[in-house]
Design a protein that fits this description.
heterodimer, A: 335 residues, mainly alpha, 13 helices, B: 192 residues
């Protein structure tokens, strides 16, 4: 029965933005990126994305509360995880990644809104630790559209073999180990080798711009990351333009766009205050430059975000606003 | 100078005693429920590790030259008794410092992180200054891991963690996640 008089506690303001609205908007804004992945990498992209999403959705169905599939958060996690994987990644590994992302990344911490680390990135970090070979094998861009870009259909625990595929280094790998820069135009459009979602910078920026306009992501985080990476990149570039990439290359290559716009801005795992977001973004930028320049891996966006995720409780504590009318911070308040 | 810096960064981040080498897990799991306690535990660790480094350098240089087979046992005995002596001295000289570190000092003297530092330092043949930087880096790394763990644990206290993961289970999951994140430091400053 529909009550005539509904008595509820404040706040009485109603906003159209609910968790499902925001989550499905993010999924929608990723559609062009997914489209580009399919355009560039053919059926392989579909297979990897589907496997990662299947792993995430099945785990959400088993571990989550009834009906939690509808809020779209597991779809995003699976989609983002899939976008960070190389096109030729075996499907069963992507599936395992989805299970880990939702199971160990999210539900073990209590489910939506309570996880400490970004679930998609935790899943990818797990895959990077478990299958370091498969996750760093990138097929060359181009080639016939219908061909698989690797042994996507490898059986679980079997050695994946893909003799027909020409592998290539990513622009970051080329720069880091061989000092060969890639044309900025190629990076912008996405005609380079790389993971599914780290190719087309323009489309990711479009999606991010839409989300920032709707206020579904805090624009300070990507802005802070880009500014930090650009400034440090410019300093390094001015020291030695052969060894270090140009700031534009640093911005548009690798997973920086996808990570800064879609993963660092995860509402759950980013700081609560705007001041905290600036600190968070600066930290990610510094770690990305540090790992890319002096680390053992060509790409550091994933680890930069995960490391700063682990600092978020601390940042929240440090940037806790003063209670209005009092002179100091509340002692012992839960962060 | 570059060598010292590398030893320091390596001990603190790349080969973090807790998150990369899995040494000193008892304080990491046991004393990480509150940030304030974790911080004090971390400082106690830095303190004991520094003492250890100095003692081990002294032992290796002057005492154990003729009897290398006595290494393990002499490390344990000397470190444990030295820390006890220092603890008693602190108690008399600075009661405030004793209140901050006191209870933790005897707890960690026989910790594997301490013995690990002694053995690493011996095997890598660090001289006095290198050993000191190694100990400081390892201590700061332990403190960093402890504080990160404690701040995350304080936050998850209000989360609706499923029954199967409540308590130590979740702590182990967080430790694993932190360790995954620290893998990003692998190879830092060594490959180029």
């Amino acid at each position: 029965m529909d009550p005539r008089l509904s008595l509820t506690a404040s706040p009485h303001l109603k906003a159209p933005d609910s968790t499902p609205t925001i989550m499905w908007s993010v999924v929608g804004s990723l559609a062009p990126v997914v489209g580009a992945a399919v355009y560039f990498f053919g059926p392989s992209a579909v297979l990897v994305l589907a496997a990662a999403m299947l792993g995430a959705l099945l785990t959400e169905r088993v571990a989550g509360q009834p009906g939690s599939l509808g809020d779209g958060s597991a779809v995003i996690t699976g989609l983002l995880l899939g976008l960070t994987l190389p096109p030729g990644f075996p499907m069963w590994m992507a599936f395992v990644g989805g299970v880990i992302a939702i199971g160990l990344g999210k539900h073990i911490f209590g489910g939506l809104g309570q996880n400490v680390f970004n679930p998609a990135l935790l899943g990818r970090a797990f895959l990077q630790a478990a299958f370091p070979g498969a996750i760093t094998t990138w097929p060359q861009a181009g080639g016939p559209w219908m061909a698989l870009r690797g042994d996507n259909l490898a059986l679980p625990l079997m050695r994946p073999d893909a003799p027909d595929v020409i592998t290539a280094a990513t622009p970051l790998g080329l720069m880091k180990f061989d000092f060969i820069p890639t044309e900025i135009m190629d990076l912008l459009i996405g005609t380079t080798s790389g993971s599914l979602g780290e190719t087309s910078a323009v489309l990711i920026l479009l999606g991010g711009g839409y989300l920032a306009l709707k206020n579904y992501l805090n624009w300070r985080i990507p802005a802070g990351i880009f500014a930090t990476v650009a400034v440090f990149g410019a300093i390094l570039y001015s020291i030695d333009p052969v060894r270090f990439p140009s700031p534009l290359f640093a911005l548009f290559s690798g997973g920086l766009m996808l990570g800064a716009i879609y993963m660092a801005t995860d509402m759950v795992t980013s700081p609560l205050t705007n001041a905290g977001c600036w600190i968070f973004a600066f930290g990610i930028g510094v770690l990305v430059v540090l790992i890319r320049t002096w680390g053992g891996l060509p790409e550091g966006v994933m680890y930069g975000i995960l490391l700063m995720n682990s600092l978020v409780p601390f940042i929240n504590r440090a940037t806790q606003p003063r209670v209005f009318g009092t002179g100091r911070r509340l002692e012992g308040a839960v962060p | 100078m570059g060598e010292l810096f590398w030893i320091f960064i390596s001990a603190m981040l790349v080969n973090n005693f807790t998150l990369a080498l899995f040494l000193g897990l008892c304080p990491f799991m046991g004393v990480s429920a509150r940030v304030s306690t974790a911080l004090r535990m971390g400082f106690a660790n830095i303190f004991v590790l520094t003492i250890t480094s100095i003692a081990v350098w002294f032992l290796n240089t002057y005492v154990l030259v003729g009897a290398p087979y006595l290494k393990l046992i002499s490390f344990i005995v000397v470190i444990a008794s030295l820390v006890q002596i220092v603890e008693t001295m602190i108690k008399k000289l600075s009661p405030a410092l004793f209140r901050e570190l006191g209870i933790f000092l005897p707890l960690i003297t026989t910790n594997c992180a301490i013995l690990g530092l002694a053995i690493f330092q011996t095997n890598r043949a660090y001289d006095f200054l290198e050993g000191l930087f190694f100990a400081l880096g390892a201590g700061l790394g332990l403190t960093l891991a402890l504080v990160l763990m404690a701040s995350i644990r304080e936050q998850t206290e209000v989360a609706s963690v499923p029954d199967l993961a409540k308590g130590m289970g979740l702590v182990l999951i967080i430790a694993g996640s932190l360790s995954l994140a620290f893998m990003g430091f692998a190879g830092l400053f060594t490959s180029s």
